[in-house]
Amino acid sequence: MAKRPLIRTEPVSEFGEFEASDFAGFGDERVMDNTYVPGFSDLRFQRDKELAEVAEGTRRPEEVSHLPGNVRLVRRMGGGQFDGKKLMAAMNNGYRPITEADKGKAWFTDLPPGAKVLEDGSIVNAAGDMQYMFAPPERAALNLKRKTQRMLDMAAMAGEKVSGGAMENTGGSFGQVSPDTPVTSLLNE
Q1: Cα-based distances in Å from 1 to 6, 7, 10, 85, 180
Q2: Fewest CB within 10 angstroms: 9, 120, 149, 150, which?
Q3: Are 143 and 93 in contact (CB under 8 A)?
Q4: Contact (CB, 8 A) for 125 and 76
């Protein structure tokens, strides 16, 4: 039997025809989103790649780089008007406004796309409703530790225990419930 030519059955996009192998040369390029911060996002992406290499066994954990702090976008508007509550909460957690003076640091190499500099030197997103804030590494680590502890405390209150990095349901104050337990029996207790 003679070989017949293969017929393509999927439509070609309006941007042209590409095979997955065509993207191999793009390397580290990635889609930027509206939270992209030149410098910090790049450092975080590099760290994520290093962690993936640890998982693959091609890098030792002690070779993974550390972030020089944490960058956050903090809401500064509420109902169309300035509302400093979230900014104050961020400052209470060790964050400070990123200013134009920070431009050029490893974690803030340039203004994010569309960002604006306010009269006081602080930097906000294009819409002006979010402000860029920075916490040094010691404070960022403390914030992460507190956040993790709150999650573990909430899990314990819900009757879950942490073992081997995963949570298991132990019933806790809700008693032991199996998938076969009828909902009506739970409602009648």
Answers
A1: 15, 18, 26, 76, 58
A2: 9
A3: yes
A4: no
Amino acid of residue 152: L
pLDDT, tens digit (0-9, with 9 covering 90-100), for 83-108: 889 999 999 999 999 999 999 999 99
Task: Write the secondary structure of 10-40 as one string of H (helix), E (strand) and C (coil).
Answer: CCCECCECCCHHHHHHHCCCCCCCCCCCCEH
- Cβ atoms of 137 and 158 within 8 Å: the answer is no
Neighbours of 72 (CB within 10 A): 19
CA distance 173 to 101: 53
Q: What residues form DSSP beta bridges with 105? A: 108
pLDDT tens, residue by residue, 34-49 = 789 999 999 999 998 9
Q: Say which residues have a Cβ less than 8 Å from residue 70's Cβ, sequence separation at least 6.
A: 95, 134, 135, 137, 140, 143
First to last CA, the chain: 73
For residue 103, how far is the Cα from the chain centroid?
A: 22
